[in-house]
Design the sequence.
């Protein structure tokens, strides 16, 4: 299959290697001819800027995938891609978005042939806007890292409770972590860790790759929070990053997790429940280890870049064969 993949192939604003890099690598491993088009080059080309000789631009293809970026704020970025390649366009989104307010995301969603979204609860709502959407999360982990699970003994685990995530004033994370920290010390690793320091918490710069694997395996319990905790099927991409690396995940529950994460994680829906489960699992090592082992298996079956592109391959084939 010939695929144009438009996205970020460098590092994101938090300095992590972009997911698109891993996805394209795995698609190529499956034998597909993938043209990886840097998003800034595609925008510049469509906007009419003088073309540089080293730009990578879309080719004739069977399918196009363009990833959400706020600077793709006009339907022309999809319309031109469709006409240049003579192929339909999938618009792939990983963030929690508000379709009701309009803006760039609404424009791109209406222009594409198929919207891929992690907001499962909104699929029916999107139909009233004339948006053709499918539930398909953009929640991938670099499989090369996820296989490097370190063998760390219980006695060498340095952090009782850890959180790997941004200081973000949306959802429950900020206030709930501050409350949990009053009972159980939370160690935070974050790209904007200085904001956590201002809240009086212990925080360090974010870690990625093998260093993230090391920190996860040095943590007894890893807290998980989401931008929105009530939309079926939508949760933080750190879920997969923790599970695939063998961490014990104590996650703020979102409807649908019981189907996908199953019993590979523990869940909480209040500060009180989180504190109770932290207390319990800090002293019940055997049960904690059993859950993290199941979570590692479930994570590698669902969240790696290798698994994700195989799912994507099926979705594309069904679309092209009029099954969607």
Sequence:
């Amino acid at each position: 299959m010939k695929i144009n993949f438009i996205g970020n192939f460098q590092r994101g604003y938090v300095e992590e290697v972009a997911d698109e890099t891993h996805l394209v690598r795995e698609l190529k491993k499956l034998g597909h001819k993938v043209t990886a088009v840097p998003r800034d080059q595609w925008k510049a080309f469509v906007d009419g800027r003088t073309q540089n000789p080293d730009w990578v631009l879309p080719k004739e293809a069977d399918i196009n995938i363009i990833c959400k970026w706020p600077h793709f704020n006009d339907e022309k970025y999809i319309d031109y891609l469709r006409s240049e390649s003579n192929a339909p366009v999938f618009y792939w989104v990983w963030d929690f978005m508000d379709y009701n307010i309009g803006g760039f995301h609404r424009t791109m969603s209406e222009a594409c042939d198929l919207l891929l979204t992690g907001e499962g609860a909104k699929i029916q709502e999107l139909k009233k806007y004339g948006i053709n959407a499918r539930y398909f999360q953009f929640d991938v982990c670099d499989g090369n890292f996820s296989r490097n699970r370190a063998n760390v003994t219980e006695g060498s685990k340095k952090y009782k409770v850890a959180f790997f995530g941004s200081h973000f004033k949306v959802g429950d994370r900020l206030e709930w972590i501050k409350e949990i920290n009053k009972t159980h010390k939370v160690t935070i690793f974050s790209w904007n860790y200085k904001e956590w320091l201002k809240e009086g918490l212990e925080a360090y710069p974010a870690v990625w790759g093998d260093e993230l694997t090391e920190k996860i395996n040095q943590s007894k319990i890893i807290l998980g929070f989401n931008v929105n905790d009530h939309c079926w099927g939508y949760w933080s991409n750190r879920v997969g990053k923790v599970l695939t690396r063998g961490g014990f995940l104590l996650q703020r529950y979102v409807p649908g997790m019981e189907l996908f994460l199953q019993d590979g994680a523990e869940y909480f829906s209040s500060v009180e429940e989180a504190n109770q489960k932290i207390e319990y699992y800090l002293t019940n090592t055997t049960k904690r280890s059993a859950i993290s082992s199941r979570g590692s298996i479930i994570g590698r079956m669902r969240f790696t870049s290798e698994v994700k592109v195989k799912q994507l391959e099926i979705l594309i084939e069904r679309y092209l064969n009029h099954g969607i």
Notes: The mean pLDDT is 92. DSSP finds 14 helices and twelve strands in the chain.
